[in-house]
Specification:
The protein is of the alpha/beta class and 456 residues long. It has helices at 3-8, 12-22, 62-65, 74-86, 97-109, 123-140, 159-164, 168-171, 197-215, 241-251, 273-276, 304-310, 328-343, 346-362, 394-406, 435-455; strands spanning 41-45, 48-51, 56-59, 116-120, 146-150, 181-184, 220-225, 255-259, 283-286, 298-302, 370-376, 379-384, 409-410, 412-414, 424-427. The structure holds pyridoxal-5'-phosphate.
Length: 456
Amino acid sequence: MNPGTAAAEVDVREIRDIDGKHVWHPMMNHSALETNPLSVITRADGCTVTDGEGVEYLDAMAALWCVNIGYGRKEVAEAAYQQLLELPYYPLSQINPPAAKLAAKLAEILPGDLNRVWFVNSGSEAVDTAIKIARAWGKLQGGRFKIIARYQGYHGGNIGGASLTGQTKRREQFEPLMSGVIHVQAPYFFRSSAGSEEELAARCAEELETVIRYQGPETVAAFIAEPVIGGGGVIPPPADYLKRMREVCDRYGVLMIADEVITGFGRTGELFASDLYGIRPDVMTMAKGLSSAYLPIGATAVTDAVFDALNAEGEPGFMQINTYGGHPASCAAALKNLEIMIDEDLAGNARRVGKTLGEALGRLRDIPCVGDVRGVGLIWGVELVEENGDPLSTEATGRVLSYIKKEGVLAGKNAGWADGPSNTLTIAPPLILTDEQAGKIASAFETALRKFHAEG
Ligand SMILES: Cc1ncc(COP(=O)(O)O)c(C=O)c1O
């Protein structure tokens, strides 16, 4: 079937009508849709998505930080199709070939000796699995169960991940959340009183150590961090922050969990951000770029040491099962996705084009409502402020976003500073982005921000 034909046949009005009656969309009050309707996205190719009216946009968010290889790679669809014909499904209570091959591939490319992989279907499940692994491991260490996470961090929508998430608005509706979680500050230099990034990294490490000591090291199982915070306002860490946090974890026998759901698979200019920042996590969570979202898949990888502890003689193993974990078609798609990503050096492209993008975005700093521009590789945030430096309101930031869309570019917005507004514009395009497309994103931002500023 020609995908173009199917898309052309979509009756946008009808789809909008049934969607409006039946689909519950995330993170919004549906009454807002009357004045600000959602786009009906029907097709995509490369870095471009097309709506039901045929209007094309440069997708500067790779959908939801995830279509890393870009849209329309037929090889991935073919791999999944062939697998569905051969063996559509079998659970990992036995062995299926694509899952075995994918686990081996991951063990080859992951940092350190993260050699054992537990498959799930999403980032949220990967995080909740990591929590359970840390707790199961902690029990064997004499009763460690607490998890230290960070304010501004985002770790998914399941109860475990929501408990680790450090943003008021993503938590308060669901409280009380999981017990045994303690939050420490994120390395958010823009609103920190630290005089330098090095000082901030030192302060954060000191705080982590203090918290572990006050809690009692023998009760703390793990510290979890996104190497670069994504959904909490795009916050790349000071250069040596993660190494310092790793040192503290080592000093007190605490596991370090790197949540690489966004940063994994090339986004920061290395295959994994743990490589970029020189750390070896004990546990890593991943999803999104693992299959570039062609099919749902997530995973939690652990070191040999963690795996061996849970598999010591007399232990029951890991007492969890996911029906779709290691789904053959998802694994086949992920394998083809990784082949493309590595053969075409998309991490290298993210590094190179990310530099062009970062330089162009940096020039926006002279616009008064731009408070901060930060990022690495192909993950960037532009934090907007009022004249007095306070965060710009969610509504005003949304207006800027709509102006960017008028320029033919889809960007995102989020935040995470305490209970503050969504005032950071986000960029995380497919890693196949060209310098020219990077220029288009930056110029759409500039036009939109200057228009917003001129309105006063
Ligand atoms: C760092 C991080 N962890 C976990 C998740 C949850 O992933 P998912 O939406 O696939 O459940 C996300 C999603 O954006 C994420 O950014």
